[in-house]
Design goal:
Carbamate kinase; four-stranded mixed sheet; about 325 residues; single chain; globular
């Protein structure tokens, strides 16, 4: 390491906090977070300046189910408010676990969770074509009632039934960007832009207002990485690397790839739009805009990936 610490934004996938086969109890999530936070604590102990962001898919979905089930007792909250709730919930788990682990390592660093808003454009084409599924599956009859009574956009999702879809606009500006940078400068480990951030419109008079949408967490993560001047961007997910021809007889892993080659693979449709596609797009954008390296790998390979020894590295050339 150089005298000036290098800065990395660590983007945690949903599996870092809730495994697919788990019910999602507080105990489940705390146990998963403890393992994840251990990887992050090791990076900090080794001299990295770390900013953490995370997904919220399972958790915000559960919050929406709770809203639906309790709607006859207490008013349901809109999606932007549910996103804020999930930022507080997951930030609390991560913040507490990471602070405890840093204390065990004799590393004196405060850890703070910041509820984060991200400005999106009213003119984003995503608002004319909602695609992001959220919340529980339901019957056709209930879907029709939700469309009629609440104005939801509902789509049939195979044999599992119908599901609400919402816009997924591009992240433009992180409202709390300067505050995050100030906290980093005084040695704080910041957890921010959880779940892609809370999408907001900025009105002509400068006021902010929430909007029911979901920003892709990986694209928001790269926006965060660029805004805080990170040299590295680390996307931790449930596979150890990116694959070409995934699931087919010619499947093969990618170790290191330039932005030009990665762009070519993206144009060829090598990466699924709902899974690896946004991760590779985020990786390429980060490096195209001055980042040294973006690595995509599994939770247990974080340190090795930053050394270029594991996962898939996207590099300038």
């Amino acid at each position: 390491m150089t005298n000036k610490p290098e800065r990395v934004v660590v983007a945690l996938g949903g599996n870092a906090i809730l495994q697919a086969d788990q019910r999602g109890t507080a105990a489940d999530q705390r146990a998963n977070v403890a393992v994840t936070a251990g990887q992050i604590a090791d990076l900090i102990a080794n001299g990295w300046e770390v900013v953490v962001t995370h997904g919220n898919g399972p958790q915000v979905g559960n919050i929406l189910i709770q809203n639906e089930e309790a709607a006859g007792v207490v008013p349901a909250m809109p999606l932007d408010v549910c996103g804020a709730q999930s930022q507080g919930q997951l930030g609390y788990f991560l913040q507490q676990a990471l602070a405890n682990l840093l204390r065990e390592r004799n590393v004196e660093r405060p850890v703070v969770t910041l509820v984060s808003q991200v400005v999106v454009s009213r003119d984003d084409p995503a608002f004319d074509s909602p695609t992001k599924p959220i919340g529980p599956f339901c019957t056709r009859e209930r879907a029709e009632r939700l469309m009629r009574e609440r104005g939801y956009v509902m789509r049939e999702a195979g044999h599992r039934g119908w599901r609400r879809v919402v816009p997924s606009p591009e992240p433009e500006t992180i409202v709390e960007r300067d505050t995050i940078k100030q906290l980093i400068r005084v040695g704080t480990v910041v957890i921010a832009v959880g779940g892609g951030g809370i999408p907001v419109f900025r009105r002509g008079d400068g006021r902010l207002e929430g909007v029911e949408a979901v920003i892709d967490k990986d694209l928001a993560g790269q926006r965060l990485a660029l805004d805080v001047g990170a040299t590295h961007f680390l996307i931790l997910t449930d596979v150890d690397r990116v694959f070409l021809d995934y699931g087919g007889p010619r499947q093969r892993g990618l170790d290191s790839v330039t932005v030009a080659t990665a762009r070519r693979h993206l144009a060829q449709g090598q990466f699924a739009p709902g899974s690896m596609g946004p991760k590779m797009e985020a990786a390429v954008r980060f490096v195209e805009n001055g980042g040294k390296l973006c690595a995509i790998t599994s939770l247990d390979r974080a340190a090795a990936a930053l050394r270029g020894e594991a996962g898939t590295s996207v590099v300038p050339c």
